[in-house]
Amino acid sequence: MDSFPTSLLSGYRNFMSGRYADERERYRSLAESGQSPSTLVIACCDSRAAPEIIFDAGPGELFVIRNVANMVPPYEPDGNFHATSAALEFAVQSLKVSDIVVMGHGRCGGIRAALDPNAEPLSPGDFIGRWMGLLKPAAEQIQSNDIMTPVERQTALERISIRNSLNNLRSFPEIKALEGEGKLQLHGAWFDISTGELWIMDPATRDFIRPDV
Amino acid sequence: MDSFPTSLLSGYRNFMSGRYADERERYRSLAESGQSPSTLVIACCDSRAAPEIIFDAGPGELFVIRNVANMVPPYEPDGNFHATSAALEFAVQSLKVSDIVVMGHGRCGGIRAALDPNAEPLSPGDFIGRWMGLLKPAAEQIQSNDIMTPVERQTALERISIRNSLNNLRSFPEIKALEGEGKLQLHGAWFDISTGELWIMDPATRDFIRPDV
Amino acid sequence: MDSFPTSLLSGYRNFMSGRYADERERYRSLAESGQSPSTLVIACCDSRAAPEIIFDAGPGELFVIRNVANMVPPYEPDGNFHATSAALEFAVQSLKVSDIVVMGHGRCGGIRAALDPNAEPLSPGDFIGRWMGLLKPAAEQIQSNDIMTPVERQTALERISIRNSLNNLRSFPEIKALEGEGKLQLHGAWFDISTGELWIMDPATRDFIRPDV
Amino acid sequence: MDSFPTSLLSGYRNFMSGRYADERERYRSLAESGQSPSTLVIACCDSRAAPEIIFDAGPGELFVIRNVANMVPPYEPDGNFHATSAALEFAVQSLKVSDIVVMGHGRCGGIRAALDPNAEPLSPGDFIGRWMGLLKPAAEQIQSNDIMTPVERQTALERISIRNSLNNLRSFPEIKALEGEGKLQLHGAWFDISTGELWIMDPATRDFIRPDV
Questions:
Q1: Domain around A99
Q2: Which end of chain A is more exposed for a tag (fewer CB within 10 A), N or C?
Q3: pLDDT band at B78 (very low <50, low <70, confident <90, very high)
Q4: CB-CB: which of B71, B79, B185 is closest to A3?
Q5: Residue C1 above 70 pLDDT?
């Protein structure tokens, strides 16, 4: 018990005396009635880009998947364990969310690794290498582009990755069908850690644009 | 653009005028220097249990994996895509976190599905069924216990799942080695949505205990 | 006389100069008119869980049975001596209590003995072994669950024992009938010695829940 | 939950804000280290005679058996369920108490029933009739004494019952042996509900005497 990180315990005390105290009834009601979030956010694990902070979301509002580089693998009903596909299935089929937001962000370590031609496996299992392999064709194409700066390449792949995830979402038959019926909407967003700006993908052009704030 | 969920846009405006305004320098500095969180939290996607809220964490503090039922699969260096193992590898090998917290919570929908003997696949891919299969032996043992109430069985499996994830973390050779060297500590925690209480796993007995607040 | 425990004599003097002095009229009146408690509490002998202390009860309020692990045996009108059934009969038929509370508690030594697969008889009579045999089927089912911790198994059986006692109460024809007529209500409660918390059994789900305090 | 007696809930709140708040550390310490009471009290279920109140006892001080008329049956190692013998065995063999106090009291309903020549069974099981049968020879002898008043007969049998319980305690081989070795002492006491007086049995004469207060 003594080993539990003290910063987390201290933060938890703030939560209990602050936010929880303010929203006690909401938490209780959410516990009783169950969650019914209308939005699924697929975000990165990055410590600087928590969806609940960026969207100032209260309890019960966002169902959140977080993996490295906010990626969605393509539909692969092969019987293996699929953390992301399982969460996706749960959000869409069981919770029946109406919106899915894929949110990327600047200075993403996973994207940086994908773009590094000299990247070594981080461990013999090379899990990051395999995982970022989902972006391999795009990464190779961007890597070979030597007239963009490294920062531009990075931002470009971050946004490509978001569109890639949106494409992969549509490889799931149920998601494609629900979107076709107008019951589900897919969105892209990109968060600039430095400026705090949120760029939203225009569904028509697939460009990222800053909304008026 | 008009389709982007208005509640998220509205929340984002609160963030910009509130938290971001207050912490502008911190965000900028984190963007420049990169993230160096000391803690990885493996949490559930549930909309009522966001780690940053529960630990009142600021930007840069928590690297967060979120999947259904906060699970860690066993070490499987098989070349497939492993969202969780990839994020884990990144946190441990690249970011060199000093602590990993597996945080479960009450009323978890994934655990409920694992305990439902009549659960049907949510979709033909049955991703949730496969994913929760990680807990199958434990779930079957708990299911057969007809003298605990459904709620007691649910809580029991939620806590067993946390211990299971901790066991699986130790199946990763690098994690086991770092823990052995005293460079990495593994923790379990369970959040009660209704009361806001955080129960922390005693590393010696593996019981969950409420810390003094 | 000199042998009477001095701590008890000293405590008795406190009672006389304190509580008795304050409630002299109540004691006298209760002596004259006889007792008419509305509640029977079936509690454990444990020195840390006295019902009058936990419910801050005054004289005349609680009729109290205390045996190891707050158990009620099933209805057995066999002509033998039955301490618990006799007290039960007196409370229900003669005092006509309106409520029966079965109160268990954490860290119960009787429950611990019931869960110990290597428990030896405490004496040749093996009275505890026989008495805890009332819980034998449940204890065996919980014992075989090796994925809950010893503390979790103990808490589970403590609560199962309360439900078991409530079931056995309903095996007494008079109690079953009075409950059916709405003249008698049965309740379960579990006291946490460490935190002082009282968990109350929800009659619908049979789960134990902390009331708002 | 709504059905739980409100007077008990209200009393529990007093306990939490009062006694528990004052003795929090003691409760915690007792939970950690386990109970080690030095005294077993065998008392009546009567709502007016709670040992913890009369001896002003704190948590952890008294291990308490309560049955109708504070009786101890004779040693009967017959394999049946024996609530009182089981608790006795636990207190003596496991907790190794140094003192056993049998505490009777005035106006005891069980004793009154034992003395009533016209007493009808309270229910077809006649559990009280059987239980008070433990005192049958003594009760018959007192009943036939028509020169004592009913109150005198009642008080007499109350005290006889205490001595009877002490005799039966000595029918347990382990208790007899421990007493012989000076490791266990047996005491009798009788509480006068009306005056609050505690009468203590002189071990030499077996008379009940009021100690100086």
A1: 35-209
A2: C
A3: confident
A4: B185
A5: no
